[in-house]
Amino acid sequence: MAYEIIPLEAFKETFEFSIELSSVALGGEVVKVSDEFFAEAFHLLKVEPAPSLKGQFGPNGALYSGWETRRHNPSYDWCIIKLGTLGTIVGFDIDTTHFNGNEAPEVSIDAILDTSLDANDLDNATWAEILPRVPLGPSQRHLFKITETERVNFVRLNMYPDGGIARFRVYGNVAAVQPDSPEEVFDLAHVFAGGRVTFISDQHFGKDMGDGWETKRSRHKGHKDWVVIKLQVMENLSVEIGLIRNFPESCELHALYSEDEIPDSDATDWTRILSPVKLGPHRRHFFALEADASIVYTHVKLTIYPDGGIKRIRVHGTKGPCSTPVDLVKLSEVAGDDTTTPLHSAPATPKHCKTIPVLPLTSEAFSAFGQVIQAYGDHTAAPPGTKITPANQGSASKFHKLSLLESSYPASTGASAGLSVYRCNPTEVVNGSVELKVLERHPYTNQAFIPMGGGGIQGDEALKEPGNAYLVVVAHNGADDKPDLSTLRAFVASAGQGIMYNTAIWHQPMTVLDKPMDFTCVETQIGNGDKADCEILELEAGEGVMMLGLSC
């Protein structure tokens, strides 16, 4: 097979937007090796560059971050690697960094073109040469571009006759795995689905710091960084953003339909689908997007302010028009649990119904409507500005004033703050969906609900096993002094999370999802409450009744 030697300075233009199919971050692994006496072959696939271990010794001699075999091999050594995903190969980076005098003098690369074979079939597999025998030099990267192969899932790196290689990277294009149904929700940004980065404004720490994207620190007011991701054509979507500790202060998201592989990141036809939102450190954020369900997109642009790092971005959507609601999280699961997974089917929504995503409750996503009241085991994950102090002689942590009480009642009304208790029975959940029938608001005061857990007085059997989750549905007021249904947001909260609705925010009455729950309600009211305290609006089918599930 023909090949081309690529100078190191041409790496970016040659391979920048190819996928590293062999990376352990994708699931690449060494499955068989002829010899690894001095250094084990798993080092070949590590994400980070090979460090120098000069002066360090083990039982077999000097230590190296790489693969190193015994001397005096009469034939050659080999290492078989299962790629992280099925794909076509366009080139390689064979790195001998820190191997000087003990580097592999020459290598060749073979592949199995029969994609039906698995690791148990390797002994009888037919290998095809995709890079002929080429020379290597000491302590340097060697880049080779080849004619794009057929789809491959195993490669074999051969070195003649023996020696050491620090890193081995296989570049190519993913054979996308997508659902057959155009209505099934999946992560369109996932590399296995064919998503890939096509432009990055800055990636100063993006590769050297391992798994994720991180930019250098900005020194100028108004700075921003951005990344453009090519997706499959999508409709009706939501987004999940996972952050590291060096997190951005805020972010926003735009989308575009373009037939160009790399569209102009400064073009005027980008549509904003997530308004600027504050972010917090070291956790996952979930946001419903402001995308028109009738429009399809091929690219998203994530902009961070002013700089920082992001671990993951997942964009949930479909390949085509969708008529069925799908939940992002199972309503019976506790919000924020990393094991929550998308559901992939639900019955058709009535024609008059619209669907909205049900997302795990986070302080950032809820901030436009109120505050989330909870403790944080990792103090750095608390909302920025939260005062945290030791309490109870060091046996507790106090999170100060996560929310403040507000009231705008006239003094003459004699309104007073107090604590009430609601016992809430579970609502009807049909195939992961809940119908929204009523919204209410409190025009003069904010209102908190704090789950109380189980127990109660002796003989009270109702809450021996209390519920674990409840639904929070909110909307802003519209121009007609009624709920603006385009701003509806739905969240699933755990029993460890309380909420404070801002004054006059429209919200669904307390909606428990699995078992009965008790809530302490903190509010200001006139006497025992009258019509001035609470305004209730019943939604009719013709007014746009909402089914709560993921709008795919």
Oligomeric form of this entry? single chain
CATH homology superfamily name of the largest domain: Ureidoglycolate hydrolase
Overall mean pLDDT score?
83
Question: Could you say what the CATH topology of the largest domain is called?
Answer: Jelly Rolls
What is the name of the CATH architecture of the largest domain? Sandwich
Radius of gyration: 28 Å
Instruction: Give the class from helix and strand content and strand pairing.
Output: mainly beta
Q: List low-pLDDT spans.
A: 206-210, 322-352
Shape: elongated
Pfam family, one: Allantoicase
Family: Belongs to the allantoicase family.
Catalytic activity: (S)-ureidoglycolate = urea + glyoxylate
GO molecular function: allantoicase activity; ureidoglycolate hydrolase activity; ureidoglycolate lyase activity
What is the compact description of this entry?
Helix content is 2%, strand content 41%. It is mainly β and 552 residues long. The chain has three domains: 3-174, Jelly Rolls (Sandwich); 186-322, Jelly Rolls, CATH 2.60.120.260; 370-551, Ureidoglycolate hydrolase (Jelly Rolls, Sandwich), CATH 2.60.120.480.
